[in-house]
Amino acid sequence: MSRFRASGLRVPLGYTAGALVLFLARPTPTSLLGGSGLAVLGEAIRLWASGHIEKTERLATGGPYAHTRNPLYVGSLILAFGVAVAAANPWVVGAVALYFAAFYPAVMREEAAFLRQKFPAEYAAWEAEVPLLIPRLAPSGPRSSRFEWGRVTRNREWRTALAVPLVIALFYALSLLGR
């Protein structure tokens, strides 16, 4: 019997959580304005991080990876919180918080263990200087990676980049319908 892996459930249950968010959303013009700004900021961080990462090939330590070891998750947290604010329903905020609390600590541990094994010396130097999640203001640690738009495409970040305006448009339509 295989052991539970949070990373295996994170994406499928993320789609389920997304559907729940859409169902529960009761956006207002004010919630849309504030939430959209946060969602766009979160996606901007994700784009920046995606332009640095070459999954399983090299350890990304430049750009946002010099501020936090998990900039994609920082971006995802900000993006999701922005969607929750835009949804204007406290149940959505709770669902988003529960989702992240249930999956992200375990996923970060799994990824750290993988990277520690694959890049032992590089990871140790990076881990000693760069925090796990809460970004430091000034960059630190080794900074070997450089941003490339081709990586953004290879990492399929365009999907999330397209989803953000789509969700904002859906919430706007819901607000017009008085929902």
Question: What key phrases describe this protein's structure?
Answer:
Four Helix Bundle (Hemerythrin (Met), subunit A); mainly alpha; elongated; 179 residues
What is shown here, in short?
The chain has helices at residues 6-24, 29-50, 71-87, 90-118, 120-129, 149-154, 158-176.
List the helices and strands and how they pair.
Elements: H1 6-24, H2 29-50, H3 71-87, H4 90-118, H5 120-129, H6 149-154, H7 158-176
Helix pairs in contact: 1-4, 2-3, 2-7, 3-4, 3-7, 4-5
Could you explain how this protein is built, in words?
The protein has 179 residues and is an all-alpha fold. The protein has a single domain, classed as Four Helix Bundle (Hemerythrin (Met), subunit A) (Up-down Bundle). It is built from 7 helices and no strands. It has helices at 6-24, 29-50, 71-87, 90-118, 120-129, 149-154, 158-176. α3 (71-87) runs antiparallel to α4 (90-118) and α3 packs parallel to α7.
